[in-house]
Amino acid sequence: MNTPVSFAQEQHPDFKNTLHNRVNEYFSENGISKHHTPGMLTKTAVMLLLYLTPFVVILTISMPVWVAMLLFFIMGVGVAGIGMSVMHDANHAGYSDNQKVNRWMGLTMNLIGADAYNWKIKHNKLHHVFTNIYGKDEDINSRAILRFAFAAPLKKHHKYQYIYAWFFYSLMSLSMIFGDIRKRITYRKKGITHISPATYRRSLAWLVTSKTLYFAIIIGLPVAFTSLLWWQVLLGFFIMHLTAGTILSLIFQMAHVVEGPEQILPDENGKMPDSLLVHQLKTTSDFSRNNKILSWFVGGLNFQVEHHLFPRICHVHYPAISKIVEKTTREFNMPYHVYDHFGDAFRSHFRTLTKLGRVKI
């Protein structure tokens, strides 16, 4: 879809003003920052240690291969935790009110093998603005043999995607790591990035350098300094990223590719029927809001409605904000999608995935 997309003028100014005023009052009345808290700093340390500690143990202690594979699995959990709970807030400028802190914490994306710059384009510029719009939101564009949008071409093999999708979900982390350089070039060719040629060359050089360092450390060091054979190190590497990919895919899919959230298309002139705020409400869903353990680990990504409305607010505040958002949407008769339990959202995603494999709308 090459036609520029534009949203309608703000349709419900009273709702928008009331919602923003109530959220601002929550922070002012409680005397708290919209950014990180001591608990967020603790979580950051835990997630980084979950990733780095097993790696240090692998490098320094001789162990059976199966123990090393278990440690690589734990690293995969850490990769997902960093991506959801640390990098995500930072690259939305929501981790801190200091932009240097946000930049450095955002670079934890590169620490786990992917690229922060690409992610900000894909997620902040495309997904958050064009949520669930086929052809614009890369998260629902068709990938490999998966179909996530009803407007996408329907192929015979899609009928079985509810069976094979789970394997491809596990490849999410790997696809980012190995596809970043191509994606950087593609974004440039499509005109999505608007930086000078010199800046672009520097960014590409940095991307290649960071990738080289990542592979030299995460694969090269275990091969050089442990008793693990090269293929065992590669196996551990893939275990780590398949674990992370599975976790990340499931959490992100529960928020948009479920029953309730809509997939709205612009008209032939690229005009959307709703304002951006209403569009976010129509295309996003919360789930498992009362599951404190899940909420802690996934960085509040189960509060996707709140995140899409207030992406620059640190996720530790979403549980409290969700009460304000739900109350205000009900008062103004605005859409608010929520699944009480993860199982409910998971089953809804399964049904949606099955329908996507059989129905063209």
Spell out the helices and strands N to C. Answer: HHHHHHHHHHHEHHHEH
Helix content: 55-70%
- The strand count comes to 2
Distance between the termini: 17 Å
Poorly predicted runs of 5 or more residues: none
Give the neighbour order of strands across the main sheet.
Answer: 1-2
Q: What kind of sheet is the major sheet? A: 2 strands, parallel
Notes on the protein architecture:
- The chain has 361 residues and is mainly α.
- The chain has one domain.
- Helix content is 62%, strand content 2%.
- The protein has helices spanning 13-30, 38-60, 65-91, 99-106, 108-111, 116-127, 161-169, 172-190, 197-225, 230-256, 276-283, 292-297, 304-309, 318-331, 342-356; strands at 285-287, 337-339.
- It has a two-stranded parallel ribbon.
- The mean pLDDT is 95.
Write a brief caption for the model.
The protein has 361 residues and is an all-alpha fold. 62% of the residues lie in helices and 2% in strands.
Give a quick set of tags describing it.
361 residues, two-stranded parallel ribbon
SSE arrangement:
Blueprint lengths: L12 H18 L7 H23 L4 H27 L7 H8 L1 H4 L4 H12 L33 H9 L2 H19 L6 H29 L4 H27 L19 H8 L1 E3 L4 H6 L6 H6 L8 H14 L5 E3 L2 H15 L5
Parallel strand pairs: 1-2
